[in-house]
């Protein structure tokens, strides 16, 4: 095989794509349609709660176009990190959608479902065996942290996908996957260079984001050869330029020259980017360098509590000038009020937009103040009821707080909404972000086949 | 010697998570000539970058000049992991503003 063609319809399954672009892609007779459906970007909640961060109708719309087109063309559809996070409930979310499409469109095909969620006991065994190390800057973990995790997934490489393709799967829905794997699997199976295949996958996983103008909801096409690959956006409105593709290599990565993944890294020190015509770029020289042992990345989250928030504006210049002292006093009042009542273990924060709201994680940078503030009062506690109590009490205390120099004595806060407080539900945080040494990159990711 | 504002010579200045535990900043220059001059003068270095964010230099994981994109990329330890208590920017996409005020002489 001299050329393998890959259609990437969209940056994340559910982000959509124009039909015209997709049809242009099908005209180029792709050998596979692949899409990445997930990310850790939306934060820890979705993995913990077992929910998709993409909307069900939006995901169904995309799959409803991709699957019938692929079946008609006799090519596979591969979806990685199904349901956004790749845990069992996330994969199930995608399986249900695919079954519904098969039923509604009266399609018959072989579906492979690959799981990536690990039992806590299994992860603890691996800690005891010394197989788990933190991915800097995450910290070492012990068995107690694993016990606290509500869900742990591992990123699979291309190996389980290759097995599913060998077994004749028409559609593959996989749990947490290294983003490029879904694009690279068929190519590696057909004997193409792994460094080129994965580098191409790294770019295709974001679809038209690597074009100019960039878009996460438009298609990108990849042509893989023995010595290079070529990228082509499928909308006449976009072009791939050497710069748009090279700049994309920086995106969301720590170091643009070394891109680590399951089993090894791609090294781009010798990568060359060339403009071959108005809208296409050729890339060559990317190399895959395997590690001595095969490592997979684990991601896990623990529940920290329940959150309630209240949003309020401030326009009074006297109040604004004293806001730090007011926040300190309100916090002290809240703690004091419930100390003996028994609500002691909570997190109370005031996010102050108009001053240091967006960049509060860097407390030492110089801030400037606008002429009004938005304050988000946030309480996180062990139960929703306690979070409601702390947030509500902080809000009423702040509303009527008699700070020094106060002129406006009717109320300190402007509420845009009634009710003023909002229950936000469960709160999670990442607590596992580690590498695990594995003997067999396939065995840990069981595959189930369904004939639809 | 002339003073340059980064916003005048860069076409892209951005921040983003690189996984939940790191924040990464990209500055892509408008032209190769200016990029080469900035790189030769080593304008971006840990001692220059750390004070912009009020962080110790040891929080800088890497600072790399990437020729194919005429870009400099700085990756730091995220002050808190994405979405942890105290979070204000889950995606890390609005942490670039201090870079927009950078000026230097060349």
Task: Explain what this protein looks like in three dimensions.
The complex is a heterodimer of chains A (452) and B (106). Chain A has 452 residues and is α+β, with helices and mostly antiparallel strands. Chain A is 31% helix and 29% strand. Chain A has 13 helices and 20 strands. In chain A, the strands form three sheets. In chain A, strands 13-14-10-9-1-2-3-8-4-20 form a ten-stranded mixed β-sheet, sandwiched between helices. In chain A, strands 5, 6, 7, 16, 17, 18 and 19 form a seven-stranded antiparallel β-sheet that branches. In chain A, strands 11-12-15 form a three-stranded antiparallel β-sheet. In chain A, strand 13 (272-277) and strand 14 (280-284) form a beta hairpin. Chain A is globular and about 80 Å long. Chain B has 106 residues and is α+β, with helices and mostly antiparallel strands. Chain B has one domain: Alpha-Beta Plaits (2-Layer Sandwich), CATH 3.30.70. Helix content of chain B is 24%, strand content 34%. Chain B contains four helices and six strands. Chain B has helices at residues 6-9, 32-40, 46-53, 97-100, and strands spanning 3-5, 10-17, 22-29, 60-66, 71-77, 103-105. In chain B, the strands form two sheets. Chain B has a four-stranded antiparallel β-sheet with strand order 2-3-5-4. In chain B, strands 1-6 form a two-stranded antiparallel sheet. In chain B, a hairpin with a 4-residue loop joins strand 2 and strand 3. The radius of gyration of chain B is 14 Å and the shape is elongated. Chain B starts with a strand and ends with a strand. At the A-B interface, helix 10, strand 17 and strand 19 of A face strand 2, strand 3, strand 4 and strand 5 of B.
